[in-house]
Amino acid sequence: MTADLSVKAATTPEVEELLDEEIETNLDSPWRVILYNDHIHTFDEVIVQLIKATGCSVSQAEAYAWRAHVQGKAGVFEGSFEECLRVKSVLDEIALVTEIQG
C-alpha cells in the first residue's frame, strides 16, 4: 500500500490578492545599490561611472569611491527596484562589482 504524499496548495482569491500586494510592497520598498571595492578599476573610472549611473556630483562620486575603497563597500543609490536595476546596469557596463539590497 502506498500513501499519496503529494499535497496541492490551494489558494483562495483573497490569499492570492494578499500575495500580490506583498510582492508589490517589496518592489516599492527602499532598495539600495551597493558598490564593492575592487583592485581593477581606478578611482577616475569609478567616479565617471558613478556620475553616469546616478547623476550625482563629482564630489559625491568621489566620496562614494573613497568609502568603497576604505570600508570595502558603499551604498551609492537608493530608490525603487527598477531604478536600482538601471543604476546597477550602468555600473556593470565597466564590470564594477555591485549588488542590490532591499
Key phrases:
3-stranded antiparallel sheet, 3 strands, alpha+beta, 4 helices, elongated, Ribosomal Protein L30, Chain: A, 102 residues, single chain
Structural summary, described in words:
A 3-stranded antiparallel β-sheet has the order 2-1-3. The chain has helices at residues 13-28, 43-54, 58-71, 81-92, and strands spanning 31-36, 73-79, 98-101. With 102 residues, it is an alpha+beta fold. 53% of the residues lie in helices and 17% in strands. The chain starts with 12 loop residues before the first helix and ends with a strand. The longest helix has 16 residues, at 13-28. It is built from 4 helices and 3 strands, in the order H-E-H-H-E-H-E. Helix 2 (43-54) crosses helix 3 (58-71) and helix 2 (43-54) runs antiparallel to helix 4 (81-92). The chain has one domain: Ribosomal Protein L30, Chain: A (2-Layer Sandwich).
Count of all domains = 1
Strand content: 15-25%
End-to-end gap:
48 Å
Which structural category fits the helices and strands? Answer: alpha+beta
Which fold name fills CATH's third level, the topology? Ribosomal Protein L30, Chain: A
DSSP summary, beta strand count:
3
Query: Unreliable runs, pLDDT <50, ≥5 residues?
Result: none
What's this entry about, in short?
The chain has one domain (about 30-100): 2-Layer Sandwich (Ribosomal Protein L30, Chain: A). It is built from four helices and three strands. It has helices spanning about 15-30, 45-55, 60-70, 80-90, and strands at about 30-35, 75-80, 100.
